[in-house]
Amino acid sequence: MKSRAILLCGILIAGAVVALSQNTEQQPPPQRPDQPMPRPPISGPQPIGQHDPNTPHPPGQMQPPHNPPPPDPFAGNLFPPELVMQYRRELGITDEQKTFIRDEAIKASTRFNQLQFQMQDEMESMVTLMKGPTIDEQKALAQLDKVLNIEREVKRTQLGLSIRIKNKLTAEQQGKLQELQRK
Predict the structure, then answer these.
(1) N or C, where is the chain less crowded by C-beta within 10 Å?
(2) Which residues of 85-112 are buried (b: 16+ CB within 10 A; e: fewer)?
(3) Is 58 helix (H, G, I), strand (E, B) or coil?
(4) pLDDT in tens, 149-173
(5) 89-183, what's its fold?
(6) Could you give the C-alpha distances from 97 to 26, 54, 82, in angstroms and in order?
(7) pLDDT tens by residue, 13-50
(8) CA–CA separation, 142 vs 148, rounded Å?
(9) How many other C-beta atoms are found inside a 10 Å radius of the C-beta of residue 169?
(10) How far is CA 102 from the centre of its chain?
């Protein structure tokens, strides 16, 4: 759940950055007399030493990065099961390959559901630790380790699934999928 929240925040921030960079020359709508004055946008943290002279924020305050996220290093090398199944006819996927991919996707989905429930439990524990007026740092960091271990297992399960799928495909099928991904 936390990884989904982090991913969603990242997507929202990236979307906001793109939208802002594309609309820098737009004028704000005219203000009606009965409306309150608009507030300046609230910016997030900016790494120390990266002050934008065009913003009123003093150096040392953090702001969201303006760079797009780096490309996925695995893109083009690994294939999600949905993509393979979507193009199964074009790829000439055999019945044996189709059955294998479906079975592996079901196993992974079951594991993802188990991990999601574990994540919810561990996040509830983390929130409980954070509610008090003081926080036991050692307990909080130990709980964080539990949460991060679950996130690690989610990523490990996903990568394992992608590897098993790729290993089941022929070199020709992999080449066709890479072409389809580039489109």
Answers:
(1) C
(2) eebeeebebeeebeebbeebbeebeebe
(3) coil
(4) 999 999 999 999 999 999 999 999 9
(5) Four Helix Bundle (Hemerythrin (Met), subunit A) (1.20.120)
(6) 52, 56, 13
(7) 444 333 333 333 334 444 444 444 443 343 333 343 34
(8) 10
(9) 18
(10) 24
**pTM of full prediction above 0.85:** no
CA dihedral 150, 110, 113, 168 (to 10 degrees): 60
Contacts of residue 59, defined as CB under 8 A and 6 or more positions apart, other chains included, come to: 48, 49, 51
| The token pair that represents 74 in the structure block | 């695995």
Is the pLDDT confidence value at 82 over 60?
Answer: yes
Query: How far apart (Å, rounded) are the C-alpha atoms in residues 104 and 111?
Result: 11
At 65, the pLDDT band (50, 70, 90 cuts) reads low
Sign of CA dihedral 72, 77, 78, 80: positive
Q: Which two tokens stand for residue 24?
A: 């820098």
